[in-house]
Amino acid sequence: MATENTRVLIAGAGPVGMVCALALNRQGIPVTVLESELAPVQDQRAATIHPSTLEMLDELGITEKIRPHSLPSSTYRFHDRPTGEVVAEFDLGRLKDEIRFPYVLQYEQYKLTAAIAAEYANESDFDVRFSHTLTGLTETASGIEVEYTSPAGTERLSVAYVIGCDGGRSTVRKFAGIEFEGFTYQERFIKIATSFDLQTIKPELRFRNYFSDPDEWANVFKVRGESPDGLWRVILPIGQDEDDATALSPARVEQRLQKFLPKTGPYHVEYINVYGVNQRVAATFRKGRILLAGDSAHVNNPIGGMGMNGGIHDAINLTEKLTKVISGAAGDDVLDLYSRQRRHAAVNYVQAQTIANKRLLEERDPEVRRRNFDELRRTADNLDTARAYMRRAALFDSLQDAAAIT
């Protein structure tokens, strides 16, 4: 029997929340999205959309719309920072006969959020409300009573289900009393974006680069930014003894960039950000009529660009199952299956891979580093092992493995 009240409340208008809302809306389910921010925030976080995610977004009609505004990138490289050597290159083009999109799109997450909101939202059945903050959830026999604050004051809404897509500090997860298991790295990360074209000094850079260094590893990516020439992002670790004010000071930022890639004259910095990094997974992604997806359910370090992608995979998996429940085609036990499948993917793929990526880049033992590099070279040079490596890194294996869980 179909649920009488079919509206779903989504907390958080980030990329996962908006993809989830659009996917549900396409199935005829009315959605309300609450976002405490005034408007889509230009948060300079995730920017890599993997091929597996592009396939999902293509089913929603999004991929072709964002492609002209993205930077396509089929290759990524591992470098040895102390020597300047290119250790290995992986080319997604070698998967062109296996996957629909043999490349990633470098497309910042705030643009994905804004694109969906601008084109699809703000109708009665796809209702996105900025400056609205969730303040309470009460589960009833037939749904959930949602309390939230808006510019007009405190308001209430009855919905069938609530999906928390409201980030690592998720209010929904806290209201549900779900534990967030894992750990926090002692060091923080700094992200520096410059409009200077790093390839003019280091032409061996690709749009995605990983630099191994026992003293200071680095991730280097190119994104479109707000200009045709694009921006280069440099991500570096910050030691425990350095406070945020020092790290963010122009002199220290310049020093870091000059150490990474010396050049004549100062760098023009577009933005900088210092942030703590966690590896955590919610104990369950479902508690009654409350569900979690994206950073609300799992957070990880950014090495490999898996967080946003895993979150969008959550959204699509959940949409498929929740649609069946609301229409009466399945019992709500399939929502527990959602939790099992996506938690498995988060723990065994996103968490495992991002932890391994960080360990690879920061390895200090010279012999272990040499063995790691030799293994990377062998993997990249052999077609079969390279394809297997790239499929796992692009989260295809995680989707296949999770789908097998019953």
Neighbour order of strands in the largest sheet: 6-5-15-16-17-14-18
Largest sheet: 7 strands, mixed
Tally of domains: 1
**Total number of strands:** 22
Indicate the structural class.
alpha+beta
The CATH topology annotation reads as FAD/NAD(P)-binding domain
Mean pLDDT across all amino acids = 94
What are the segments in which pLDDT stays under 50 over at least 5 consecutive residues? none
Helix content: 25-40%
Radius of gyration based on Cα positions: 22 Å
Q: Alpha-carbon distance between the termini? A: 23 Å
- Label the overall shape: globular
CATH superfamily: FAD/NAD(P)-binding domain
In words, what does this structure look like?
GO terms for molecular function: FAD binding; monooxygenase activity. It comes from Kribbella albertanoniae. Residues 6-351 form the FAD-binding domain. Keywords: Monooxygenase, Oxidoreductase. This is FAD-binding monooxygenase. There is one protein chain. With 406 residues, the protein is α+β, with helices and mostly antiparallel strands. The chain has a single domain (8-183, 279-403), classed as FAD/NAD(P)-binding domain (3-Layer(bba) Sandwich), CATH 3.50.50. Helix content is 36%, strand content 27%. The chain has 12 helices and 22 strands. The strands form 5 sheets. The protein has a 7-stranded mixed sheet. A 6-stranded mixed sheet has the order 8-2-1-12-21-20. A 3-stranded antiparallel sheet has the order 3-7-4. The longest helix has 30 residues, at 333-362. It is globular. The model has no long low-confidence stretch (mean pLDDT 94).
